[in-house]
Amino acid sequence: MTDAGTITTNGSTGGLPLNSRAHLIMPFGILAMAIIAQAALLHSFIISDFSLPIVAEVSHSSTPLLFRIGAAFTPDGGAMVLWLLMLSLVNVLLTLQLFGPAKSPYAQEDDGTLFKNAMSIMGLLIAVLGVATLIDADPFLRIPVAPLDGRGMNPQSQDILRVLREPFLYVGLAGLAVIHALTLSGLIFKKFDRRIAETLRFWTIASWLSLGAAIAINAYRSYSQQAWGNWWYWDTAENSLLLPWLLTTALLHCRAVLEKTETLKGWTAFLGLSALAVGWFGVYLTRSDLFGSLSETLNKPHDSVALLIGFCVVFAGSYYLFWRRGEELGEPRSFELVSRESSMFINSVMLALIAAVVLIGTIYPLVLRWFDGENITVGGPFYVEVLVPVVVPLLFLMGFAPTLRWRQDEMWLIGRRMKLAAILSVIIILFVSIRFIELSPAPLIGIGLAGWILTASLSDLWARLWRQPDHGESKYRNLQLLGPRYLSMTLAHIGLAIMLAGGAASSIWEEQVVVSARAGQSIQAGPYNLQYEGVALLAGENYATRQATFILYRHALPVTELFPEIRYYPIRGVETREAGIWHGRDGDLHVSVGDRADDGGRIVSVRFLPMMTWVWAGMIMMLIGGTFSILTRIVLRFQKNGVSTS
C-alpha cells in the first residue's frame, strides 16, 4: 500500500499503480476507435468504394493510389477524422506524460486533480469534434445506389506536398488542444504556475514545430507546383496556418517567462486559450463554403454549422472562465522595463497584433460581402503596408532578447554586449545600399534586419562560448552548459534571419523574361541560359500532358534539363501548369510554359530568383531548432544525465 492508498503490483506493468493503469484505459480505447475509423476510411478510398459519397466526390478509379490515400484527408469528413485521430493520439501521450511510468512529478500533488481535469477537458474536446463530424459531414454515410465511378480528385490537390501537409497541420492543432486543456485546467484549479509552464513546454514546442512544418510545406507547394513563382499569397488556407503559428510563437516565449519567473500568468493563459481558438476557426473557414459564391453559400445553410456551434460553446466557456479568474492571475513579482521578461512580453504582444491583422484581413471580405454583397480581395499589398510598422520593431527587439538579463538590466551593459552586432549590421546595410544605390527602402530594411538578427545571435553565441572563464578551457563543455533551449532558440533566430535575407534579396534582384519561343531558341535569365527544345505530348496516370524540354546552361556548360508541363485532367476537365525549377547556388530558376502565341511560338515564362534557396534553408533551420529542442528534452527526461536544460 502506497502513501496515497493505491495498490501496486510487480507484474509486467513495472509497478505502475492501479489507478494510473485506469487512467490509461479510456485514452487507449478512444485511440483504438479512432484508428479503426481512419483505417476504414482509408480502405474505402483504396478500394474505391463509391457507395460512400465522400469517396465518390473526391476520388476516381484512375486516381493513383498515393493520391487516393491523400484524398481521404482532404474532404470535410476525412479531415475531421484525421483531426480526431491526432487528438486521440496526443491524448494518450498526455496521459503517459502525466500518469505513466515516467509521469510528471506533479501528477500526485493534490491527488493529481489538476491533470485529471486536463484529461477530462481533452475528452470533452474529442467528444465535441466527434459530434460535429457526425452532424456536418459523416464520412461513413452510404447511398443505396453507388455511381459507377467518382468525380475525381481536384488536380490542385493531387500533390504529394498536399498529402504531407495535412498530418502536420492536424498534429499541430491537436497539440494546441493539449495546451488549451492544461491552461483551462489551471484556471479551474486556480493554480496557473510554474508546474503548468513546465508541462506545457513539450506541447508548445511540438505544436510550433508541426504548424511550422505545415507552413513550410504549403509555401514550397505554392512555389513549386502552382507555376506562379511566389511562395505566399495570403489566401484563407495559408492564413489559417499562419494564425495559430503566430500565437504559438508568442506563447512559446511567454511560457518560458512563466516557468522562469512566474510572471505573465494572465497573458500566457490568454495565449494558451487563443492559439486553439484561431486554429479551430481557421479550420471552419477553410472547410465551409463562406468564401464561395454568395448564392451557393446561402443554399447550404447547414454547412459546418455544428463545427461553428462547437467552437462558440467551447471558447465562450473558456473565455468566461478566463475573465472570472483574471483577478487571481496577478503578478507575484515585478520586473523592470529593461529586462528579458519585458522584451519577451513586448515581442509576444507584437506577434499577437500581427495575428489580429491577419485575421481581420482574412474575414473582412466575408463580412463586407454579407453586408452589401460586394466581393473584394485582400492581398499582399494590404498586409505589407499594415504589418511593416509592427514587424520592423519586432525583428529589431528580437536581436536584443537573448542578451538581456532577467528582472533588470542596464542600458550601458546592453550597448556593450550588442556593439559587435550593431557594427556588423551597419556594415551590411551600407554595403548593400552603396552597391545598389537605386534600391528601394523596404528590401534594404529587410536585409538590414536580417543582418542584425544574424549578427546578434552569432555574437551572443560567441560571447557565451569564448568569454566564460568560469567554464574552463573546454569549449565543448561550454556548449553543453548552454543547454538545448538556448541552442534551439539560436538556431531558430538564425534560420529566421536567413529566410528574411533570402526573401528580401529575391524580391530585389528578381528577373523575369516572357517570350514566344521556338524550338532551338535560347533564353537568358541571370547567369543561366535556357535552350528550348520543344513540346512532347505524353500520357500520365490520370492526365495528358504537354511536356516542354529545356537544356540549362551556365557559362556555356550544360547543367541539367527542365521539364515544365501543361497537364489536362479529363475527369474534372481541368488544366494545370507545373513549373520546372532549378535550385542553383546563384538562386532559383523557375520555368513555366503556356499556350501558343499568335506568331506560332510557345509562351515561355522564366523567372530568376537570387538567393531563393536561402528562404527554404532558413525555414529548415528553424524547424531543426524546434526538433533539436524536442529530442534533447526527451533524451534528458529519460536519461537524466545532468546536462542543463535551461
TrEMBL record:
The Cytochrome c-type biogenesis protein CcmF C-terminal domain, residue ranges: 311-632
Transmembrane portions of the chain: 24-47, 80-102, 114-135, 168-188, 200-220, 240-258, 267-285, 305-323, 344-366, 386-406, 418-437, 443-465, 486-509, 614-636
Species this chain originates from: Thalassospira aquimaris
Family matches, as InterPro entries: CcmF_C (IPR032523), Cyt_c_assembly (IPR002541), Cyt_c_biogenesis (IPR003567)
Residues of the Cytochrome c assembly protein domain: 88-288
Family: Belongs to the CcmF/CycK/Ccl1/NrfE/CcsA family.
Pfam families recorded: CcmF_C (PF16327), Cytochrom_C_asm (PF01578)
Protein name (record): Cytochrome c-type biogenesis CcmF C-terminal domain-containing protein
Keywords from the named record: Cytochrome c-type biogenesis, Membrane, Transmembrane, Transmembrane helix
